[in-house]
Structure formats: C-alpha cells, structure tokens
Amino acid sequence: MSKDKPARIPTPQPVRGTQDMLGDFADRFAHVVETFERVRRLYGFKRIEVPVIEPTAVFARSLGETTDVVSKEMYSFEDRGGESITLRPEFTAGIARAYITNGWQQFAPLKVATHGPLFRYERPQKGRYRQFHQLDAEVIGSDSPLADAELLVFADQLLKELGIAEGVTLTLNTLGDAASRDAWRGALVEHFEAHRSDLSDDSLARLDKNPLRILDSKDPRDRPVADSAPDIDAFLTGEAQDFFGAVTAGLDAAGVAWQRNARLVRGLDYYRHTAFEFVTDRLGAQGTVIGGGRYDGLIEMLGGPPTAAVGWAAGIERLAMLLGDDVIDNRIDFVIAVEDDGLLALAMRTLAALRGRGFATEIVASGSPRKRFDKAGKIPARALIAVGTRDGASYFNMRGDSELTVVADATIRALADH
C-alpha cells in the first residue's frame, strides 16, 4: 500500500508591483541614494525621517479627496483601534504633519531631505511600481524665491553628479500668488464651460473641483481645448511677476538651464508660484524624473499656521535606470587567494588589517588550494594577492593596481615581522 505524497507547498510570489533587487540594479539604486546624501549635505539639508504610515486624513486633506491618488490609489486600512491608516503615497504631507505636531516652526526656515519607500495602487509600468522609492527635499518656512532657486540648483547638481544631466530638461512655470491663481482659474472655468461638449469624461469631472488639471490632460480629445485656454501670464500680479523673475534670475546666475512651460500646473489650491519638472525622453511616457513646486497653503490646510514651503521629489528607480553602464564600479579593492593553508593565519591577519584601513577585501581559502588563485581571479577586484609556499619558503604574489599592491606588500611585511 503506497503512501500518499505530501501536498506540495506553493511557493509564495511577490506582491504585484513590487520588486526584489540584487546585483547591478541594487548597486545603481544605492549609488543614487549615496549621491543624494552627499549632495544634500553640501546644501545644508538636514536628514529627516517620517513614518511609513499616517492617519488617512493627512493625505486626504493634502492631496484632495477627488484626486486619483486618494480615490483610487492609496493603500488604506482600519487598524485594531478603528482608525483609518494609510501607507504613505508621497513624502510632503507627512513632513508637513511632522512640522506641525513637533513644533518645528522654531527652526524655520527648515531645510530637510529624506528618501524611502512609498505606496500607490496603480498599474505597474516601466520605472513605476506599487512600492516605489523617492528622494525628497523640502524648504519649510521661507517665502523667498531664493529658496525655490536653491532647491532647483540642488536638483540640477544631483543630476550632474549622477552623470545623467544630459538629455534632462528643467521645465518651469509660475502659478502666481493667490490673486493671480483665482483670476486665472475663473478664466479657465469660463473657457472650459464654453467647450463642455468637447471635453473627456475625466475633464468634465475635474471642471468643478480641479479645472487646472485639464491643462495637462493626456486625452487627445482634451488637447485642442486645453491648448487654446488662456495662459496665466495675463493674470499675474506685479508681485507674482517679480517672484518668478527672481527665481529665474537665480537659476541664470547659477548656470542652470531652464525652459518655460506655460501648461505645467499643479491642480490643488495650496500650490503657489513656482512649479517645475525635470523631464527626459529616455524613459518613454514616464518622462518626469524630478518634480515639485511651492505649496504655501498646505501646512495651514493641515491645521498649522500659515507657512510658506517649497519642495521636490525624484523617483530613485527612474534615476537608477538613467545611469550609464560605466558609472558603477563593482570591484572591491583586494582579493586574497590562500594557496597554502599553513599561511591562513597570516592571510586572515592581512584581511583584517586591510579592512581596518578601509579597503574592501575578500579572501578565497576553501576548496582545492590549486584552484584558489583561478577562483580569486574571477572576483572583480582592483588587486589580487596570492599567499603560498614554494620550495619551503613563503611567497606573496600581487598583481593589479600598483598603488594598492604597494599598500598590500607593506601590510603583509609588517604583519610577518610581528
């Protein structure tokens, strides 16, 4: 009588829209983060950490109940206490909440930066995931156009340090101050109402709540109406014109190239003045790699005092995809091949000494001693050290980077003498 085979346990699969990273892309991802951390220190931005989960109201208020992110894309759930909790879909709202609840007004103007995972339930595509990662930089508590300019120069230098600035264009627009925006909004509503029959269903839904968003609609039916809509320039107050002029003058002084895009908008009412995107055609339809703007009304909307603020975010995956093949050097500094087990102790002391001096070092000391050199040679390293004996005498053969081999030789001789 045969025994029944135990049921095969199904292998767990990753959640759709998430990714596991190993090797080259993980190194690219890390390189983007490391470069961001280095550049943000140059600009005096403090590191900030905020929770991955927030009360749903933080995002519902800040992103607008009618936006696709809130209505369709947020990962929200009720916790055991009955409170509605949301996995953060973006950084700015959580940072604004932290600014209010921690009383960080005393540090204004506050320059902060962070990076980490975000979550949106949307259709996965090239460079876009349901768990994705962003860099984020914010200046809170400054109403100076120089804050906008500094953030943009920061972003421009980040792209240059990553070696991906070529082919990426900074596009810039002004949304004006409150008076400018209200006047423009009224003119847009009048224009779109006159062409209701030509608009898509999505744009008709936006007409009452979010009419500015019709300007950047991707639906071909909307483009003729959107393209013929009035620009904001006719409605800018003198103060708003001066603000935008100061931002662009700061960019010109810093040598940052930019292009005006009068159709670049932010639909929510708390956005003011500067709106910008760094765009490329190297990622297909998803061409924005850094985007942001000034959001002077957000903190007040969340219950804080009126507070000027401006910031940007950048997709880490997208930046990593733009990196050239020669940007990442995966080589370690040394690999040690132990060809005689009698010298293992010396090789281990050498390994510890080199690592102690800050050199990335690996050791090959298992398997057939005859094959260890060949095995070590397959590990990407700037220098290879072979440790063995010949005719009763120990030998140390080194090849590779001349400066490193000198270091290794001196290290081994000092250890051997002791």
UniProtKB/TrEMBL annotation:
Source domain of life: Bacteria
Q: What is its EC number?
A: 6.1.1.21
For this protein, the record's InterPro entries field holds: aa-tRNA-synth_II, aa-tRNA-synth_II/BPL/LPL, His-tRNA-ligase, HisRS-like_core, HisRS/HisZ
Quote the CDD domains the UniProt record gives. Answer: HisRS-like_core
Question: Which Gene3D superfamilies does this one have?
Answer: Bira Bifunctional Protein, Domain 2
Q: Which GO terms describe its biological process?
A: histidyl-tRNA aminoacylation
> A Gene Ontology molecular-function term?
histidine-tRNA ligase activity
Kindly indicate whether the keyword Coiled coil belongs to this entry. no
One cellular component term from this protein's GO annotations in UniProt: cytoplasm
Instruction: State the family named in the UniProt similarity comment for this chain.
Output: Belongs to the class-II aminoacyl-tRNA synthetase family.
Name assigned to this protein? Histidine--tRNA ligase
Its source organism is: Sphingopyxis indica
- Which gene does this sequence derive from? hisS
